[in-house]
Amino acid sequence: MATLVPGATDTVLPSAPAAAETVPAAPATETGVPADAEPGSAAAPTNSELHAVSVKDTHPESLSDTPAAPAPAEKVEPEEPEPQNALTKQFTDAEWTALKEFRKQLPDILADAYPDKKDAKTAPISMWGIELNPSGGKSAKESVVLMKFLRARNLNVSEAREMLVSTLRWRQSFKLDEVMKEEFDEKLFGKVGNIYGKDKEGRPVVYNIYGGNTKEVFSDVQRFIRWRVQFMEKSVMLLDFENTDQMIQVHDYEGVGLRSRDANSKNAASEATSIFGSHYPELLYKKFFVNVPSLMTWVFWLFKPLMSANTLAKMSVVGSGPHAIGKALLPHIDAKELPKRYGGEAPDF
């Protein structure tokens, strides 16, 4: 018989020779080992062998020599960083989220705006001097332009999309490229609008003068609208969309009364307001109404409850004369950039 050495699994000591008498074999158990086999005998498995059999019987999966490799993780492409400038750095997280979704839709937006253009989904276009690229190229200036439509619609991507499509269609139907080449009588329209100087943050200051020869100016409403849109485009082109993306407007009502407004002037004002509200979003920083007659001031306050808080924050009704006007404008515009008639030191235009 062999004797196990304590602590040694595979080492046995020689035993005395077995008797020559033949003994009938005991019936085998399920493991194939005789039921009466002594532990440590040639017929009996060792403790290690018994453990191996037990493991194989209860854990058949352990028979595999190599464990199954885990499924490969799906590869996630790193997001391309956004180009930045002074204006995009002011975007909130919510604005960035909306902008990324809005930009993904740009190919379809251009396809909707230009249904007859075969390469609309891939060809860049220009608006306000900034390229809008549907092919995936990013630019910080493009982000600033797109953000204007999102902000105008409270970051609702679907509504911003509708607004941009409508704007692009209008620019095409209005034949804006041709309008920008049109020449207007400087002696007449030069008295109605001027772009003069900048505010303390570099924004252009635009003056609209309503007390001139209004009958002649508004005698042809559509001519006035074309001039007014061209004037607006020239104002917007002064924005670099890197440090400045808004303007200041000064509306001068000196010499204007309720009776001086005829049907043409009212129609022109209504159409221009509709165009700028629909197709030139978020381009106004401040609007000052100066030299406003007392009766018109009363009308403004009458309609004040109907205006949004955002609109009211941008509007100021100022009194008449250089002193009163300067008091309102000089905090925003340096005296050297402001004409004397408005309380500054610069020459009058």
From TrEMBL:
Alphabetized SMART domains for the sequence: SEC14
Catalytic activity line of the entry: a 1,2-diacyl-sn-glycero-3-phospho-(1D-myo-inositol)(in) = a 1,2-diacyl-sn-glycero-3-phospho-(1D-myo-inositol)(out)
One Gene Ontology MF term: metal ion binding
Keyword Iron attached: yes
Biased composition (Low complexity): 16-35
InterPro entries assigned to the protein according to its UniProt record, in alphabetical order: CRAL-TRIO_dom (IPR001251), CRAL-TRIO_dom_sf (IPR036865), CRAL/TRIO_N_dom (IPR011074), CRAL/TRIO_N_dom_sf (IPR036273), Sfh5 (IPR042938)
Principal place of residence: cytoplasm
Swiss-Prot/TrEMBL cofactor(s): heme b
Domain CRAL-TRIO: residue ranges: 176-349
GO BP annotations listed: Golgi to plasma membrane protein transport; regulation of exocytosis
Keywords: Cytoplasm, Endoplasmic reticulum, Heme, Iron, Lipid transport, Membrane, Metal-binding, Microsome, Transport
GO cellular component: cortical endoplasmic reticulum; cytosol; endoplasmic reticulum membrane; plasma membrane
Stretches for region Disordered: 1-88
Protein's UniProt name: Phosphatidylinositol transfer protein SFH5
Organism encoding this protein: Heliocybe sulcata
